[in-house]
Write a structure and sequence with these properties.
By secondary structure, this protein is an alpha/beta fold. It has helices spanning about 15-20, 35-50, 90-95, 95-110, 135-150, 170-180, 205, 210-225, 240-245, 290-300, 325-340, 345-370, 380-395, and strands spanning about 1-5, 25-30, 55, 120, 125, 160-165, 190-195, 230, 250, 280, 285-290. Helix content is about 40%, strand content about 10%. Strands 1, 2, 3, 4, 5, 6, 7, 8 and 9 form a 9-stranded parallel β-sheet that branches. Helix 12 packs antiparallel against helix 13. The longest helix has 24 residues, at about 345-370.
Amino acid sequence: MKLYAQHGAQEGEKINEGISRGLIDGVVFSPRDISADPLRKKIDLWAALHPQIDFFFDPQFYTCFIASSSDARLGKLSETEYGSYLQPRRRSQLERESQVRSDLDATLRFQTNLRLKGLIAPNILIPRSFDSIEAVIAKNFIRLTAEITSALQETRPVYATLAVSRDTLSDKQELQQFLNEITLLDTPPHGFYLLVSARSADARSDIYNADVIAAWMLINYSLRINGFDVINGYSDILTPFLGAAGGLAGCTGWWSNLRSFSTDRFGGAQSGGRLPIQRYLSVNLLNRIAFSELDQLRQLVPNVMNNLRTDDLYSSDEGSMPERNKEVLQSWEAIKALNQRLVKEDTLTSLQACLQCVEEAKNLYDIVQSQQIVLDPKSNSEHLDALIDGINLFLKLAEIDFATY
């Protein structure tokens, strides 16, 4: 399972250092946060220095319906060069196949001159149901992706975007039917760039929900057994669980809106207030805890520590507070370690390792609780039951029975 940086605002030297330390395997760039010319120069430089690193470009075409809104916050996406493929669209326009073809051609053509590992095709977000006009439009984008790529004489792999809201995943029968349709295409893409949208980037329960986890794993599993590679955008700590189900890669970044996907990032009210508290991603807790909580626990419950190189960034001499621009390095290393621990050679062994890891995390939380240290809501164990229930529901949906192996 590969781990990619989900690029965003205030990148600084984070990605460069992540690559140099061997913590990430690639980058998915965000045009909202970097102009086209600096993007080209950066990819050219890094591709020359690090030929083993995978570079991708998320065209963020799913913003087309809000592009003309006065509330839109499209950043660099609104610049002229990205305008060669991203224009405001109405749903009625994209109901015409000719418009879908045109937007696919323009978006993929833009990427042909970038030194990318593969191309990510555009698509819209399916906001409510797989039985909807938006789902029909999305299927048309997926159906035509490989055809348009071939017409451009592009030989690199192409990944069709599949962007769905967490609410869309609630109807498992509709999901299964949709997966059947996109896996039986006459001219399929090489793989998929998969996004699951929360109602907001801070809506933890939106993603840590048994139905959402099970469906996200099922999409990876179904696409993998049908020969597709899946890159999971904004997957963060769920990355190894999606890898256990067959995913090729997962992505995460340094802000909450780069760890969980939401179109709120591109429109609506601008969030404000103080910068978030620095956190430490504990492999054994399967969660981030505040640095102050880490400072209390590291002596009382040593197993909360990862014993990885980036632990040095959280010095006890500094109250376990890291430099803010180094925090993501610790996250990347922790998720990479989880990938190595949980993603095995076969699905069954991987899923067994996942369930065991969650049970061990619950036990460790019990030990933490016994120390009478009160954790803040983001640091608690509420997500673990959703993980266990989600994995078990996925096993049922995928008809995987441990007893038969």
